[in-house]
Amino acid sequence: MKKIIIMGAGGHGQVVADALKQMKGAEPVAFVDENNELHGKKIMGIPVPGGSTAIKGIPHDGIVVALGDNALRKRIFNELHEAGENLFSVIHPSAIIAADVKIGDGCMILAGAVINTQAEIKDNTIINTNSTIEHHNRIGPHAHIAPGSTLGGEVVVGEEAMVGIGATVLPRTSIGEKSILGGGSTAIKNIPGGATAAGVPAYILP
């Protein structure tokens, strides 16, 4: 049984903990969180011994960075990788994933997600609850596909990009690096890097 530390004890971290509890062959042994008020407590029956400095004192086989902020998650992921830590991918057993999908290190694929053939989910990317990733997508690294999103075939989502709750991305459309597609929006054409777009159809916000 692999012992996994979850970095981040907030709402997203708790969703990841629930998925991890339901996986076979792995178990959450601790949360680590920089919020001093949580130290010494238990959340979902899982201890919170301290912040990141507590990691060395916790026997573990891997860590998952369960933080929603893409830039922060990327920084911590890279620091842990450089320190030689194993970044563990959490996959909820209810997710439907084609056999040839490529999944990188430290990903979080949550309940009800569907990922179809020839897709690639790169390192440290969140595929959140009930999202659909169609065939031949390229997602991430360090991206976040929020709950209920639908991505058509051959979509590309760049590094640190965010696709908001319930958003739709039409086939062969790209969402640029560090860009945001707002919740409930529909992208019918490419969103450039660093932009924020919203609406149906989505347009670039000033």
Task: Tell me what you see in this structure.
The mean pLDDT is 98. The protein has an eight-stranded mixed sheet, with helices on one face. Strands 7-10-13-16-19-22 form a six-stranded parallel sheet, with no helix packed on it. It has a five-stranded parallel sheet with strand order 8-11-14-17-20, with no helix packed on it. Helices cover 12% and strands 30% of the residues. The protein is an alpha/beta fold and 206 residues long. β23 (196-198) and β24 (203-204) form a beta hairpin. The protein folds into two domains: 2-88, 3-Layer(aba) Sandwich (Rossmann fold); 89-194, 3 Solenoid (UDP N-Acetylglucosamine Acyltransferase, domain 1), CATH 2.160.10. It has helices spanning 11-22, 70-82, and strands at 2-7, 26-32, 41-43, 46-48, 62-65, 90-91, 96-97, 102-103, 108-109, 114-115, 120-121, 126-127, 132-133, 138-139, 144-145, 150-151, 156-157, 162-163, 168-169, 174-175, 180-181, 186-187, 196-198, 203-204. The longest helix is centred in the middle third of the chain and has 13 residues, at 70-82. The protein starts with a strand and ends with a strand. The chain is globular, with a radius of gyration of 17 Å.
